[in-house]
Design goal:
- The complex is a heterotrimer.
- Chain A contains seven helices and 13 strands.
- Chain A has helices at about 5-30, 40-55, 140-155, 175-180, 185-195, 225-235, 260-270; strands spanning about 35-40, 60-65, 70-80, 85-90, 95-100, 115-125, 130-135, 135-140, 160-170, 200-205, 210-220, 240-250, 275-280.
- In chain C, helix 5 (about 85-105) runs antiparallel to helix 6 (about 110-135) and helix 9 packs antiparallel against helix 10.
- Mean pLDDT of chain C is about 80; it is low at about 455-470.
- The interface of A and B includes residues 70, 185 and 195 of A.
Chain lengths: ~280, ~280, ~475
């Protein structure tokens, strides 16, 4: 064989190995920020979710699981929030509380979906908005619904499809008295609301010392239903409450461009009661 | 080996006969209609659930045969339809034994046994075998009237009527003196999954895939026990519930008739499962 | 000349030098052991010898039956030329047995048309493999490894087999348990894969060397077979605890194929003493594991269900994934690179298991399954064809006496046999196709150089002829 050809082939081989080695080292350095995998247990999934979310990465994926009512849930979605051993997994409209029925560590949250498989991967093509509101005095949830409605209209201006999830706490003297004097079957009301609405509805405290009602990661479209249920089961004089620690999580279907972001920011900050608006890849605690 | 010309050779005939026999055997065995199944050994609850749902999603009729061991000891065989399966439990309806809750863990009183072998048999779905209804929260009286509907002959070929619901016993006294374990033990004698918690002024009894008559009987026994113990209660709260009806096999028209009956009684959503 | 190639050659020389030293040490140890002589004088007990005689007679009878069979008459020339363990005979034969087991299994048939399509595609893939192997594997002249290369084989083998065996043993300590008894601990990580590959290479080289020693009179056949029995025992001891029957099959397959290539054992003996007992052991191992878990095992179902579930899984793959491919090489061949880089990649387990039961568990889906997901319909023919061509060429080079080919071929054949069931999804097995391709390329370049040097004389003659013609 022509010696020159052999020499050239040798140099090409060396160059390929060198380039490959550099690419390998570079990719290994950056690889830690990528994750994709399947887990069966929600405890493992929650651990992974907490790890990546704490570092600012969003996780999307899919779930195959069994709802407590026996229906099979199979849907793509994303991790909206994560707790110690459970996940808030959103398929868009719905938000499920997921934990494995056979795991030993349990969060004190109601199980909604028992996963047979959770696929999660770090999603870098994502942009979200976190909106914080000042506390609102509300009768039932009327004023909150009105405020969330204003925010929704402002988001509509940008023209990008989104989902909006609400988290807040409710406290009221009348509410506490109604619970401690057994005018409201509060624990059964928890079951009722969690069956009918997305996200989590939880009574924090005890009938001896009621603290507050927690509404967490509920799709804003369910607020009317929740309002109706509260109005039905709570005495009318206990519906005067203070809503506080109000956070709205906006998940866009596609990352908005800079001009859309500017529009959204301007519209939202012009609404009274909006404390701040922050664009972020992940809602960190 | 040297290539030889073909002639009368006993070894060659023997080999040809073996090949022909094997060929005929394979063709006959594969072409003949026979029972086909998945055979899952051991209490692989996740594998059982995944296999069941993967076949159910493809629209097949599924019948399950189980060999297992009772919680209390002794072996059993059961067969029937799967009501529910998740990573921990398999809930089966056997025509003779009723609802069986099988799990690889015995830490719950409602678990009847552990499966050792599960045969999952598939066939083409040809008629309606199951309808699930969702009802909003309700009262005990409405539930009792539903029970009468299930007992009446107005529903054709009904094999079973099962409820999954959260019941609240709303008591007058706080810091409930009746322990959750007592209610759980009362409920353990009924088929299905039961989870109980007592907190504040309430006792929450969550039942899943319990026969409707059994659920009503459980509530009655509960209220009788409370009365006997002198624990006054305001009322029984009936939360949103799912009603699962199993049939021998309904035509589409009959299924539509059943659906309209229950819609008239307040059902908000329904899912029809076509099974053989 | 390439720096990388030079480094590689230096490392290879170093390895062989270490092997030479090791062989001297082992020789001196063996010479000091009188029991080795006693071992070589050891005779098989009479009842066992009688049983072996009967089995041999039956095997000879059936082998002569194959030579006279009407059904097998079209294959007779190929069997006569290439042999039972050639890729164009062994792989289709194993496929036919496996498919028969799948057909008689009671696993459900979800859709008859898809089921028939699955069988057709699987058969087409195997046929493509066999055709590819026949195209390159049938045309060869028989040759022997040069005597000068004989001792190098031993020196090459020893460090690899010792390092590989140690690595496999140490791996069990790393895991901290026997994965066979604790299936949740089974895994093939980088450490395991490197040890296993080294062991396979060392095993194949060692057996090739032993075969040459027997042929050239340096070692008695009895001593050789005794040593091979010891090697077999070591191989089983190292691979059975891993919990993967695949590991046992490939290692034993490599050993047995090397023995066949070296002429130490015949095809009929392989079927009689390894094939059928191996199948029985395969079934009983599963039944015993079940018994250990307190369950009753059904040997018939155990025998047929694996093949049946593979066919069932293939039908679900064909229904779930598009016919023109989806991942285009990423799933099968780019996957190990992405694994090394730590970049998320589509997993065979996730994609196959998802279609089968919705869980990310790697079910076997036949030779066709993973290829279908990667390349679709064209891949189902082209990928096995390519694998067959390479395997066949390595086979023909081995027949011609190329030492590297004789070492590689047993591993490639064992891998091909495993892939009938699972597809080419094992990076630690198809990585052997890289040196195989390099070997084929090297040979082609060498042949071209030889042709060019002979062509230099031809043009003179041709010109005279042309002139004459003109």
């Amino acid at each position: 064989m022509n010696p020159r050809v052999v020499r050239v082939a040798g140099v090409v081989l060396d160059l390929c190995i060198l380039v490959g080695a550099c690419a390998f080292v570079g990719a290994r350095i950056n690889a830690h920020s990528y994750y994709s995998g399947d887990v069966r247990s929600c405890q493992s999934a929650a651990y992974i979710a907490n790890f990546y979310r704490a570092r600012g990465y969003s996780l999307s994926g899919s779930i195959l699981g069994v709802h407590v009512n026996g229906t099979i849930i199979e849907s793509p979605g994303f991790v909206l929030d994560s707790a110690r051993a459970s996940l808030f997994f959103s398929t868009g409209r719905d938000v499920f509380i997921v934990y494995s029925s056979d795991q030993k560590i349990r969060d004190p949250l109601p199980q909604e979906v028992d996963p047979l498989r959770l696929s999660l991967k770090v999603d870098r093509d994502v942009d979200r908005a976190l909106i914080s509101l000042d506390p609102i005095w509300t009768k039932g949830l009327a004023q909150i619904i009105q405020k969330v409605g204003e925010i929704s209209q402002a988001l509509d201006e940008a023209g990008i499809p989104y989902e909006l999830y609400v988290t807040f706490k409710l406290h009221g003297k009348g509410l506490s008295e109604a619970i401690s004097s057994n005018e409201v079957p509060i624990y059964w009301l928890e079951e009722l609301v969690n069956a009918k609405c997305s996200g989590l509805f939880m009574f924090v405290g005890s009938t001896v010392a009621p603290f507050y009602l927690l509404i967490e990661n509920m799709n804003w479209r369910d607020l009317d239903e929740l309002n109706a249920l509260l109005g039905q089961w709570m005495p009318s004089d206990s519906l005067e409450m203070l809503a506080y620690d109000i956070q709205l999580k906006v998940v866009f279907s596609a990352p908005p461009d800079e001009s859309s972001k500017a529009t959204i920011y301007k519209e939202l900050t012009s609404i009274s009661g909006v404390r701040y608006v922050k664009f972020t890849t992940e809602f960190k605690d | 080996m040297r290539a030889k010309s073909v002639g009368f050779n006993p070894a060659g005939i023997a080999v040809d006969a073996l090949i022909a026999l094997a060929l005929i055997g394979v063709i006959l065995t594969s072409a003949m209609p026979r029972e086909r199944y998945f055979d899952i050994r051991g209490a692989n609850m996740v594998g059982i659930a995944a296999t069941y749902y993967s076949a159910a999603r493809r629209g097949y009729s599924i019948r399950v045969e189980v060999e297992g061991a009772w919680h209390a000891g002794g072996a059993f065989r059961a067969s029937g339809k799967v009501l529910y399966a998740d990573s921990k439990r398999l809930v089966l309806f056997d025509d003779e034994k009723g609802v069986l809750v099988l799990s690889d863990e015995f830490d719950e009183a409602y678990v009847d046994g552990v499966p050792k072998r599960v045969l999952i048999k598939l066939s083409k779905a040809s008629s309606v075998g199951r309808i699930d209804f969702s009802f909003p929260y309700s009262t005990l009286e409405e539930l009792e009237s539903l029970g009468e509907v299930c007992r009446s002959s107005s529903i054709p070929r009904l094999k079973g009527c099962f409820i999954s619901a959260s019941f609240g016993v709303w008591l007058y006294d706080a810091n409930v003196t009746i322990p959750a374990s007592l209610i759980a033990d009362l409920a353990a004698s009924f088929d299905g999954i039961t989870e109980v918690k007592t907190v504040g002024y309430e006792a929450i009894v969550k039942v899943r895939f319990m026969d409707l008559d059994s659920a009503l009987a459980l509530l009655e026994r509960l209220t009788v026990t409370l009365d006997r113990e002198g624990v006054p209660y305001k009322r029984i709260l009936v939360g949103p519930y799912e009603l699962t009806l199993l049939f021998e096999g309904l035509s589409s028209e009959e299924a539509a008739g059943v659906v309209s009956q229950f819609v008239a009684r307040g059902a908000e959503r329904w899912v029809i499962h076509r099974e053989g | 000349m390439s720096v990388a190639w030079s480094i590689f050659k230096i490392l290879l020389k170093l390895e062989i030098a270490v092997g030479k030293k090791l062989s001297e040490i082992i020789r001196s140890i063996l010479e000091g052991l009188t029991s080795v002589e006693a071992l070589s004088r050891w005779e098989i007990p009479r009842p066992a010898a009688r049983l072996f005689e009967i089995v041999d007679r039956v095997a000879d009878f059936l082998a002569s039956g194959v030579a006279h069979s009407i059904f097998l008459s079209p294959l007779r020339p190929i069997i006569a030329t290439a042999g039972a363990l050639s890729p164009m005979i062994a792989v289709p034969a194993v496929y036919i047995v496996y498919l028969s087991l799948a057909l008689i299994s009671p696993l459900p048939v979800l859709d008859l048309n898809v089921w028939l399509a699955a069988i057709l595609l699987w058969s087409a893939a195997i046929l493509a493999y066999a055709v590819g192997a026949a195209l390159t594997g049938l045309r060869c002249k028989h040759g022997e490894i040069e005597p000068s290369a004989q001792e190098e084989l031993l020196h090459f083998a020893l460090p690899l087999i010792i390092a590989g065996a140690l690595g496999l043993a140490v791996n069990y300590m790393r895991i901290g348990a026997i994965p066979l008894l604790y299936p949740e601990l089974r895994r093939h990580d980088g450490f395991w894969m490197i040890s296993y590959d080294a062991y396979l290479l060392g095993l194949s080289s060692l057996v090739t060397w032993m075969g040459l020693k027997v042929k050239r009179g340096g070692l008695s056949r009895t001593s050789c077979l005794t040593a091979l029995a010891g090697l077999m025992a070591l191989t089983l001891a190292l691979t059975i605890p891993s919990g993967f029957r695949l590991d046992v099959f490939v290692a034993v397959g490599t050993l047995v194929t090397s023995m066949w290539m070296a002429g130490l054992v015949r095809g009929r003996q392989i079927i009689a003493y390894f094939g059928l007992p191996g199948l029985a052991i395969f079934v009983m191992q599963k039944v015993l594991l079940m018994a250990r878990a307190g369950l009753s095992g059904d040997p018939y179902y155990v025998l047929v269900s694996r093949a049946g579930f593979t066919l069932y899984s293939l039908t679900t793959i064909l229904q779930a994934y598009p016919p023109w491919g989806m991942t285009y090489g990423v799933l099968l061949f780019v996957n190990p690179i992405l694994t090394l880089l730590g970049i998320p990649r589509p997993l065979v387990g996730a994609l196959t298991g998802e279609a089968v039961v919705g869980l990310p568990v790697a079910y076997t889906t036949s030779l066709v399954g993973p290829i279908w997901i990667d390349f679709g319909l064209p891949g189902v023919v082209l990928v096995p064809l390519a694998i067959g061509v390479v395997t066949g060429k390595v086979f023909s080079l081995a027949r011609m006496g190329d030492p590297a080919a004789e070492v590689l071929y047993p591993i490639l054949l064992s891998a091909s046999l495993v892939w009938v069931e699972s597809g080419p999804v094992h990076p630690y097995l198809y990585s052997f196709y890289a040196p195989a391709l390099a070997l084929i390329l090297k040979r082609w370049v060498e042949n071209r150089s030889v042709e060019q040097s002979t062509d230099v004389e031809k043009p003179k003659n041709r010109r005279e002829e042309d002139l004459e013609f003109m």
